[in-house]
User: What shape does this take?
Amino acid sequence: MLVNHHPDSERLTAFSAGSMPLSQALCVSAHLEMCPDCRADLDSLNKLGSHVFNQMKPSRVSNDLKQSVFKQLNDTQTHDPVSNSPARNETGRVASGVPKCLFQFIDDDYDSLDWHWVSPSIRQANLCVDGNGAHVALLRIKPGGKASHHTHMGEEITMVLKGAFSDESGIFQQGDFVVRGSNDKHRPIATKDSECICLTVLDAPIQFTGYFSRWLNPLLRRAHP
Ligand SMILES: [Zn+2]
Assistant: This one.
């Protein structure tokens, strides 16, 4: 697999430090499963972080703060979403190329998800909304299918899980990590040889700008209430 588009170093550093919103961390995790280069970079960042941490001088804290931290640790229930989700069809998910970080959302394979109609070429399956309000979803575009022209009110991260799509700035294929800002206007088109499935994280709903925008925008708001 040839991966051409990667998370930038700031994003990878935030992932290593654990300071990234969960929705974005999900996209980076999916990318890491498909990109040995970024796995090697992350390993270096983790070692660097560990070294810096070991060099830090401990400072004294009050007993109240200590007790408060220990209480919070005791109150926090350990939660392992992957192991809590019964492995209903591990083989199906692996055979379908579902990244392990998405097993918590997918029982069997991509077909087992609840896909909502967005347009004749596009279906959407909502996965979750993180604590910051970012929406995590899968988009499924038919071979050769075209999304409408749209802009973003916030940042959009797209991780290509299967197939490939192109837009005004190039071709993006399996494993690629693509970030679009609030000023970007684009129209993704799936390549004709296969369907394209992408993991997307949206800070805010996208805004369609093309001919069908009057009826597509309300549909998407319904999919992302
Ligand atoms: Zn990478």
